[in-house]
Amino acid sequence: MVATSLMLSLPSTVSFAQDGGDRRNLFNMLFGAPRTERYERYERPTRRYDRQDGSIIEMAPRRQRSRATPQAAVPRARTAPIPFQPQAEPVAKLETAKKILVIGDFLAGNIGGELETTFATSPGVSIISRSDGSSGLVRDDHYDWLGQLPAILDEAKPAIVVVMLGANDRQQMDTASGREKFRTDAWFKQYETRVAELAGMIAQRKLTLLWVGLPAFQSPSMMADAVTLNTLYRGQVEKVGGEFVDIWDGFVDEDGRFVLTGSDVNGQQVRLRNSDGITLTKPGKEKLAFYVDKVLRRHLGDMASPDLAKFDSSTLPPLQTLESPANPEVPVRPISLVDPELDGGQELLGGNAPPARLTETPRDKLVKRGELEPAPAGRIDDYRLTTQ
């Protein structure tokens, strides 16, 4: 009954809720409407009505949800562009230039390409690269290095031979007794024979042999096999008087673990290996060739200098001939550069006896006898009395 009486007593002006406002129930009338603005994205517009006729007399503007003022974008600092450094123009090679032959697989091809750039300005050094990326000492059906090397040596006529093989040799090998699996004793015995034959072929021609060892690989099994093969290479190469170039430390960390990123030839941290963990990036190729370059310069000597000059009739100035003297009766006597008469004496300096009496200097008098010569007349330390 109380609720019914309250509803009847309300004025008819509550009908404004149908004009767009929220509908109100009995609970809202008694206890108030809930705050809906906290659940809505935007608040509803607030209207104010005339109590006489119910017309709208004012509408407050809709209040937008507060938003944070966007901050001005901070410009990112741009690093200065690396200045372009043009490469030096290659120079013509001398006829007497020492030829360096680089043979092997894809890693040997990296060495050959970088050495060509390194010695491009050295007229006394010529790089010849003969590499096959998929070759090795196992798949002689793909490329037979033992059969092709004699012809390559006859054609190139090198003074130094750089060899790098083995990255593709971790596979089965065809032998006279059949196919041998990798890592078996028979496989290593046959492989050692092929390495010794290749190294001996170069040593018989009295050529300098540099055998470059394998680097570390990302695969643990490949890394372990590379250590075993490098031991085999070193032993066979040193037997024939060659030199083994160890590059292992350049591609591992301090603990001997494989690294993708390491120091380049300038000591800067760069990416050395590609994502496959086998091939090399541009800085990695430069570092690989750097190890070989250090050993080569010991054998090349002055020939590796870019300032090597060619002394012949094309570079030397023409010789100047002296004209005959105007009076041919006066003999022309050659002058010896070691003639003592040139300096006006016949004896060496100090050869003459000292004079019998030497003039005693004021310093000698002061040091020996403590005598000080009188000051000149008129000087501030002249204490002699003068008569006017």
UniProtKB/TrEMBL annotation:
Biased segments, Basic and acidic residues type: 360-372, 379-388
Region (Disordered): 310-388
InterPro entries associated with the record: DUF459, SGNH_hydro_sf
Polar residues biased stretches: 312-324
Residues spanning the signal sequence: none
Any GO molecular function: hydrolase activity, acting on ester bonds
Protein name stated in the entry: DUF459 domain-containing protein
Organism: Rhizobium soli
Classification of source organism: Bacteria, Pseudomonadati, Pseudomonadota, Alphaproteobacteria, Hyphomicrobiales
